[in-house]
Design goal:
Two copies of one chain form a homodimer. Chain A folds into two domains: 239 residues, Aldehyde Dehydrogenase, Chain A, domain 1 (3-Layer(aba) Sandwich); 144 residues, 3-Layer(aba) Sandwich (Aldehyde Dehydrogenase, Chain A, domain 2), CATH 3.40.309.10. With 414 residues, chain A is of the alpha/beta class. The first copy, chain A, is globular, with a radius of gyration of 24 Å. In chain A, strand 12, helix 15 and strand 13 form a beta-alpha-beta unit. Chains A, B: Pathway: Amino-acid biosynthesis; L-proline biosynthesis; L-glutamate 5-semialdehyde from L-glutamate: step 2/2. Chains A, B: Its EC number is 1.2.1.41. Chains A, B: InterPro entries: Ald_DH/histidinol_DH, Ald_DH_C, Ald_DH_N, Aldehyde_DH_dom, G-glutamylP_reductase_CS, Glu-5-SA_DH, GPR_dom. Chains A, B: It is an enzyme of class 1 (oxidoreductase).
Chain lengths: 414, 414
């Protein structure tokens, strides 16, 4: 606990320096980090080897081990990610708007760093580099709490980052790691209101739920995506097929992948056999409603639970709906307000869907897979917010800042 | 508990209708509310009389009773507040920005209502009308939980609001009151994540602290203001005196009032006797540091605690600092990141203060008392945020909205 408070104090102190540094200075730090990651890759790999051995002896799943595992190429990719962040425009300092009041006061909104950001994440050591670099670029100090599986890799990576900062003007306490990976310390971290300005969890549904439940610090909830593709009666069937196949199979394990297909009843007989065949030939298991099963028999009958589930796998639930209203209501009730798409040639239907669906990203005639900071053109991504406060959808550098009001007077009193 | 969930469900359902209503329809509802408040003022006063009798029999303070008490003029002022909200521009529907990606996707950010807003407040029945009207105008449904002292007044006011909505197309469940004012129900309300998109506490430090501690719903923290006026060595002494007097005495009970005066040592001997005399003649008790007491003897010696206290009263703590850096560091350590001001004729000092002070509103040569939605020109205010997520400083209608990404494609897949 005392260690946590000390880290909080150091982070806050460093943030008052870092938040006033120029983009040039911050980029210098990032450059050193990228270079030293490559230079010292053997050290990282040695530590990662220990993590992998521990993981295997604990019988951890192959998927988890793949997330944990580093090699020279992956380290190079991490470093290149840092070099890319250097190229991005620094959002800090922009005066977003400024106006004059009748009494002569000039009131402006200036973009400033959030301050101290906490990140809680799981077994992926690349998050350590990625999150630290993005926070730095936006002028924030960061306290990282990674999963126990990656602790040896993380320790070395953080050493490299902090020693890189030593070669620059950036305070080394701009980046700190919580080395005690116990659950108690994590819970205390979530309540570090005096020092943390925001806490961002990155990981699975369990982690995010725990953070939302326990944190007293402001949280940005990220992640869960129970996404739908709704195929309207007036649509380009070929386009619809391509979109659902892409949204489901191009990368099933990510949050912007589709988990559900909704089909208007008037087009179901024509569309579903084609679509389901294409999906099946890509290895997708179909769980359909009764009406779907009446059209394509060789599928599993979906339960209500299936429609609520983010499979993150080669599984898709399918439902036939009577009209667009039923589709919209279903999405608003069963969805997680992440990414939702309609495929239609109807102007009216497209506008109604756009207006009434309550989600971070609503698409007309495109795959939900585009909900991503890079695909949106932000050049980076710290996560995808599924809450409505502060940031919604993909979060880039701008979402790691806040504003302060700056007011120029000449003696005004009230 | 069940009642709370039912209210949550109704609010969520109503929000899907209200969020798609035109400004015209919403204004029609507000007009009816304002008219009916005036028409039915006798009913409100009768209920308020019961609240006042209960309060007096419980021996509640005069200040609290003044906040609770209504009369015809106060009800008229409440109604006029509603009519003013009609005049404000509806923030919903604005496409804040839109851009095209190389693949042809058009990505836009559209301003939409937050959804369901919870408001927890204390004894002031005017908050009931004010908060409900602002939420409605921005397309949000609202669940209100006022203090037990005002429950009879609130019940009648909410009846009037809901019956007013009945005369329009707005769902009556757009505005609901939690009638059970127990602490247990309040705590459950703070954890109503499935239905509440945001919770805004309005009231004293105790209430806000309880909400931050207990809520699992996203919260916008409002309120506490331990504000400073820093008088730099190069300043217009008359201006500095006017600003500190205004910031302290024009309304000591509000969060944007100054609680601390910091003075550069080089100007202290000239400035402090003048300033303290002016403050004392306005009834202000001075609690100064040792150096201050050496210049003006007839004051109380300040404790460290005094510098951390939001007095909300005719009390001011005074400290002499060696330079602007000490002033900035003191503010960043002791302040609550609300409103901070420098009085200076130095360009360099003004820019340094603006840059380095970490607060929602930073002033050059003006009173901190301007931190207010109306003074900023927003035409309304739901509170003053002292956190950094989502909104910082005075929150108007715009801060009661979020954005959603709208994406126009023509078959893009990834």
């Amino acid at each position: 606990m005392d260690e946590l408070i000390m880290k909080g104090q150091k982070a806050k102190k460093a943030s008052y320096i870092l938040s006033n540094m120029s983009a040039q200075d911050k980029n210098q730090g990032l450059k050193k980090i990228g270079e030293n990651l490559i230079k010292r890759d053997e050290e990282i790999l040695a530590a990662n080897k220990i993590d992998l051995q521990n993981a295997k002896s604990k019988g951890i799943s192959e998927v988890m081990i793949d997330r944990l595992a580093l090699n020279k190429d992956r380290i190079k990719a991490m470093a290149e990610g840092v070099f890319q962040i250097i190229e991005l425009q620094d959002p800090v300092g922009e005066v977003v708007s400024m106006w004059q009041r009748p009494n002569g006061l000039q009131i402006g909104q200036k973009r400033v760093p959030l301050g101290v950001i906490g990140i809680i994440y799981e077994a992926r050591p690349n998050v350590t580099v990625d999150a630290a670099s993005l926070c730095l670029k936006a002028g924030n100090t960061v306290i990282l709490r990674g999963g126990s599986e990656a602790i040896n890799s993380n320790k070395v990576i953080i050493d490299i980052i902090r020693e890189s900062l030593k070669e620059t003007n950036i305070p080394i306490d701009s980046v700190q790691l919580i080395e005690d990976t116990s659950r108690e310390v994590a819970t205390q971290f979530m309540k570090l209101n005096e020092y943390l300005d925001v806490l961002i969890p990155r990981g699975g549904a369990g982690l995010i739920k725990a953070v939302v439940k326990n944190a007293t610090v402001p949280v940005i909830e990220t992640g869960t995506g129970n996404c739908h593709i709704y195929v309207d009666k007036d649509c380009d069937i070929e386009m619809a097929k391509n979109i659902i196949v892409n949204a489901k199979v191009s990368r099933p394990s990510v949050c912007n992948a589709a988990e559900n297909l909704l089909v208007h009843k008037d087009i179901a007989i024509e569309f579903l056999p084609l679509a389901i065949e294409a999906l099946k030939s890509n290895g997708v298991e179909i769980r359909g409603c009764r009406a779907t099963k009446a059209i394509v028999n060789d599928i599993i009958l979906a339960t209500d639970e299936d429609f609520r589930t983010e499979f993150l796998d080669y599984i898709l639930s399918v439902k036939i709906v009577n009209d667009i209203d039923e589709a919209i209501n279903h999405i608003n009730e069963y969805g997680t307000k992440h990414s939702e798409a309609i495929v239609t040639e109807s102007y009216k239907a497209s506008q109604e869907f756009l207006q009434k669906v309550d989600a971070a990203a609503v698409y007309i005639n495109a795959s939900t897979r585009f909900t991503d900071g890079f695909e949106f053109g932000f050049g980076a991504e710290i996560g995808i917010s599924t809450q409505k406060l502060h940031a919604r959808g993909p979060m880039g550098l701008k979402e790691l800042t806040t504003i302060k009001y700056i007011i120029y007077g000449n003696g005004q009193i009230r």
